[in-house]
Amino acid sequence: MRSTDQQLQEIMRRAQVVNEKRIIRKYFRVSVLASCVCAVLLIASCINLPKLTVMTEDPGMQQYGSLLLSAPYMGYVIVGVLAFALGVCAALLCIHWNKLKQKETERK
Asked: pLDDT tens digits for 67-88?
């Protein structure tokens, strides 16, 4: 039979485990949601890519500023940035998932 202090410590330990699992689920949901939003933005921009490219009438206007930001390439720049954001979200999701697995193996 356990003493009252041991029972209280066990209750506190179990409460901490439940809170950790709740926090882990919350972070997992947020990271999956962020990855899905990035994927949807990437797909939507790929579908609308022909609409994003606008040709300028004045060839002299293309000489100013960056070559990549001239009108014909703007759609590709947007898709590239969104693809990079999706890759970052996927990498963070994998890292987070790996840490969760390591914590589960340490508990057992």
From this structure: 545 556 666 777 788 788 888 8
Alpha-carbon torsion 5, 6, 11, 12, what sign?
Answer: positive
Distance separating alpha carbons of residues 71 and 50, to the nearest angstrom = 12
Position 15 pLDDT exceeds 90: yes
pTM for this prediction: 0.51
SS3 of residue 14 by DSSP: helix
Determine if residue 25 is left, alpha or beta; phi over 0 gives left, psi from -120 to 50 gives alpha, anything else beta.
alpha
Q: How far is CA 56 from CA 15, 28, 45, 47, 77, in A?
A: 63, 45, 21, 22, 17
Q: How far apart are CA 64 and CA 25, in angstroms?
A: 49
